[in-house]
Specification:
- It is a single chain.
- The longest helix is centred in the C-terminal third of the chain and has 21 residues.
- This protein is 28% helix and 28% strand.
- It is globular.
- With 182 residues, the protein is an alpha+beta fold.
- Strands 1-2-3-4-5-9-8-7-6 form a nine-stranded antiparallel β-sheet.
- The chain is built from four helices and nine strands.
Length: 182
């Protein structure tokens, strides 16, 4: 009986450490403004990775990024990761890709983990790949895959609003199809 309890306790300790941010290859990004101790305690801890791969590997959840972007893209930059509660368990990560010739064309993918109930004001409910529901609003689309919320923000003033919406839907569908095919 003691062995069973000990093994169960050990397993819980091991598993609880697996579902949090691994900061071993991340650097803390110091705030650029002066803040009080109280403000610092209430701000997220912001981390930066040296590479995209380091950032993806640090996260306790899988992130899928689209491979075929609707513009001539430079590779996704290394992400910025925010530890919202200072415990590595409630996270937000930003992934950016820019057009090679025009920095005003940009795709930002924000992931939130775990999913927290939220509202999407003034947005259009849309059907995505594999019967997934999403919410479209002007230059963004939001959807949820298991325990990760995705928000794609696409800045491109060189195309029509209809083309913009269609390209956002295609980007979201790439992520959904790749994640559900994995």
């Amino acid at each position: 009986m003691k062995k069973t309890l000990l093994l169960t306790a050990l397993l819980l300790i091991i598993l609880s450490g697996c579902n949090k941010l691994d900061t071993s290859n991340l650097k803390v990004k110091e705030p650029e403004d002066e803040a009080t101790d109280h403000q610092i305690k209430n701000r997220p801890i912001t981390y930066v990775a040296d590479t995209l791969e380091d950032g993806l590997n640090a996260l306790p959840f899988d992130v899928v990024l689209p491979e075929n972007l609707p513009f001539e893209a430079a590779p996704f930059e290394a992400p910025m990761i925010m530890d919202l509660n200072h415990d590595g368990r409630m996270l937000m990560a930003h992934f950016k890709a820019y057009d090679k010739g025009n920095k005003e064309i940009m795709l930002l993918i924000q992931t939130d983990f775990p999913v927290v109930e939220s509202s999407v004001p003034e947005s259009e409910k849309i059907e995505l790949s594999n019967e997934m529901k999403g919410f479209y609003s002007k230059n963004s689309i939001a959807f949820q895959l298991k325990d990760v919320a995705y928000s794609l923000i696409y800045m491109n003033e060189t195309i029509t609003p209809a083309e913009h919406k269609e390209e956002l839907i295609q980007l979201a569908n790439q992520i959904i199809d790749k994640k559900q095919g994995a």
